[in-house]
Design goal:
Elements lengths: L2 H8 L3 E12 L2 E12 L3 E5 L6 H8 L7 E6 L2 E2 L4 H10 E4 L11 H11 L5 H14 L15 H13 L5 E5 L7 H16 L3 E5 L3 H7 L2 E6 L2 E6 L1 H6 L4 H11 L1
Parallel strand pairs: 3-8, 3-9, 6-7, 7-8
Antiparallel strand pairs: 1-2, 1-4, 4-5, 9-10
Helix pairs in contact: 4-5, 4-6, 5-6, 6-7
The structure holds adenosine-5'-diphosphate (ADP) and magnesium ion.
Magnesium ion binds next to helix 2.
Amino acid sequence: MSTQTHAAEHAPKDIILMEDVNKWYGDFHVLKDINLKVRQGERIVLCGPSGSGKSTTIRCINRLEEHQKGRIVVDDVELTNDLKQIEKIRREVGMVFQHFNLFPHLTVLQNCTLAPMWVRNLPKKEAEEIAMHFLERVRIPEQAGKYPGQLSGGQQQRVAIARSLCMKPRIMLFDEPTSALDPEMVKEVLDTMVSLAESGMTMLCVTHEMGFARTVADRVIFMDKGEIVEIAPPEQFFTNPQSDRTIAFLGQILH
Ligand SMILES: Nc1ncnc2c1ncn2[C@@H]1O[C@H](COP(=O)(O)OP(=O)(O)O)[C@@H](O)[C@H]1O
Ligand SMILES: [Mg+2]
């Protein structure tokens, strides 16, 4: 076996592949020729003005939105109308939203065990053990018996992250997970995300937390008007942005 073959075998694979992805909402062309490869274990931050298509892009990855043109392949499974494929991908991909979307009538523990029991068919005891493991990881095991309404926003968002992790996803998508939080709670959620990143999780995060982007991201993507305008490692992205649109955007959010 040649060393080249050997190296290729050990290179992290592309776990998300978007090829010439286009999407329309009616007449409105919301995603224009999106091309993106995300390697396993890579941390990507996606930023850009409101309405630029960031949420739509990540929602296409687990088929919360359907693309009309191009190809999306997640962990070797292509997203088509085949429901089996969609279910398979959704089991691999966790998603955390701006609004936590916890079930208010279920306890923290029940929120975390619901999908593992009903989707993965885990026995209750096993699902609860896994839930407690991840509640410990987000550092709120003592809240397991409470209802979401009894928790702060930061705690609820950490529960939402733990709930996603209970499905043992291979990829985590975050859509502005800290933008609905009071400022004093942003750090606890970002810390949770940093520790998740350190564990090797593949992460695609829509966020305007540029401190997080600088320290955690392998690459930063800037989107504007449905296009990927620029992709660069954070060092380069912040110190030497190439596009006028990136420069204008950074000028607005960093000052
Ligand atoms: N379901 C929808 N129907 C029609 N237009 C939509 C829908 N969802 C989003 N849009 C529009 O698509 C554009 C991109 O939205 P979005 O992906 O949410 O942007 P971002 O997350 O970057 O703010 C916006 O102009 C928005 O108004
Ligand atoms: Mg959005």
